[in-house]
Here is the input.
Amino acid sequence: LSALNLSGNHLRAVEAGAFSALPALRQLDLSGNPLVSLSPQAFGEGGSSLEELALRGALRDHGVLLSVAAMLQSGALRNLSRLELADNGLLLLPSGMFTALLALRQLDLGNSSLVGLQNVSVQGLGQLQSLNLSDNSLGVLRNGTLAQLRSQTALQRVGLGRSTWVCNCTVEDLVTWLKESDQVEGKEALTCSNPDKMLGKASLKINGSDLNCSESVDLPSQLQTSYVFLGIVLALIGAIFLLVLYLNRKGIKKWMHNIRDACRDHMEGYHYRYEINADPRLTNLSSNSDV
Here is the structure.
């Protein structure tokens, strides 16, 4: 048996060793199953020769997603050339999920509610030819992701359609890549969703004047400058305070002596009253003197 289609069968669990008795299996489709449990050892301890795996709409449970990530990272599916994870509410993918799939050629992450690709790395996937990221909520592709996509010489098709692109200063590098590269399918149809003034504008027609990014925003540098300025201000305040103390040293010394004398007189009064209260004879003498 080389191909097995189990899509739409209401499967909820895939136990360890479920496919270990199928050494010739090359294609497996588990799409449309509401999985709540999938063992990372589903293909046995020795791995599998599986080449195509479809899990469209089957990773609604986050625990199942983590199990799939562990299975992929373990190298059990090192021969996988096609992986379909579309139509899942993934949001964010586990870090390094695809790093062990060195034979991967097609990766479908379309319509998976992805909000970022921080943990997704295609570095080292030298055979990757097709990457579908359409129908997601990415907003923007960061410089690190763009650098990885540029470095993939075998990558021919990247799908970015129907996503909510935020066209502010962070989109400049993405626009530059779109204009220079032929990897993106249908890039002429990519439009801005935010902010309101850029709504519906074609990404390829964006220029620097539209974004008003004459001064780049470097938050770490700004914070570092603020800390330095704060340190200088505090140092000046401390120096002024010490100077004031030095100029008024005589007055301060006199003030301290006055406080010391006042405290001494006060304590002597308390001491005198204590002696009178402690000695009955002094108490009677004090009473007679009052009379």
Observations:
- Helices lie at 62-73, 143-151, 172-180, 208-211, 219-247, 249-278, 280-290.
- The radius of gyration is 37 Å.
- The longest helix spans residues 249-278.
